[in-house]
Structures are given as structure tokens and as C-alpha cells.
Amino acid sequence: MSTEYAVTIRPLPVADGGGFIALVPDLPGCMSDGETPEEALANAQDAIACWIEAAHEMGRPIPRPTPEEPVQMLKFG
Predict the structure, then answer these.
(1) How far apart are CA 39 and CA 33, in angstroms?
(2) What is the pLDDT of residues 2-45, one digit of tens each?
(3) β-strands 20-23, 71-73: how paired?
(4) How confident is the model at residue 66 (pLDDT cuts 50, 70, 90)?
(5) What is the dihedral angle through the alpha carbons of 53, 57, 59, 60, rounded to the nearest 10 degrees?
(6) How far apart are CA 14 and CA 29, in angstroms?
(7) Are 19 and 33 in contact (CB under 8 A)?
(8) Does residue 68 register a pLDDT over 80?
(9) DSSP assignments along 3-58, one per residue
(10) Neighbouring C-beta atoms of residue 67, cutoff 10 Å
(11) Beta bridge pairs of residue 8
(12) What is the pTM assigned to this prediction?
């Protein structure tokens, strides 16, 4: 199974601490953040590995990645 999941990265409001959040739509609840988009993406890769490991240990199904671009940057304002 491929482990290249799509990651959506978007800026966080300053009121929420600033930086960037990385969401993995195919893996419910899988997300991370970072000061830069690159850091958020690197942290998301760790989160994906942990999510898959935890699901495997609990005997839960691991969704296949949705075929699309692996990284998606959303820009606001």
C-alpha cells in the first residue's frame, strides 16, 4: 500500500498561535503544525506514520490514499 497521502497546508491565524497547520484528509484526525509550511509538512509525515501504526495496532482499517497531488497549499487573503 502506498503511504503517500495528500496533505493540505494552510496558515493558522495569529490568534491561534500563527504558523501553519497540515491536515491529512484521508486519515481522520491526522494533523500536525509547524512554524513554516515545510515544517508543518515534515511534522505531518511523522503524524501519518504514527496514525498508521496506531490503526494497525488497534486492528483498524488503513484507508488507501486518494489519488491526487501529495501537497496542497491553501492561501488566504
Answers:
(1) 7
(2) 468 999 999 999 998 899 999 999 999 999 999 999 999 999 99
(3) unpaired
(4) confident
(5) -30
(6) 22
(7) yes
(8) no
(9) ----EEEEEPPGGGTSSEEEE-TTSTT-EEEESSHHHHHHHHHHHHHHHHHHHHHT
(10) 8
(11) 23, 72
(12) 0.80
> In the predicted model, is pLDDT for residue 74 greater than 90?
no
Question: Per-residue confidence at 1, pLDDT binned at 50, 70, 90?
Answer: very low
Quote the cell numbers at residue 16: 491561534
**The three grid cell numbers given for residue 41, joined into one nine-digit string:** 509538512
Residue 73: what residue type? Answer: M
Q: Quick one: cell of 75?
A: 492561501
Burial classification of residue 9, based on how many CB atoms lie within 10 Å of its CB (0-12 exposed, 13-18 middle, 19 or more buried): buried
Side chain identity, residue 12? L
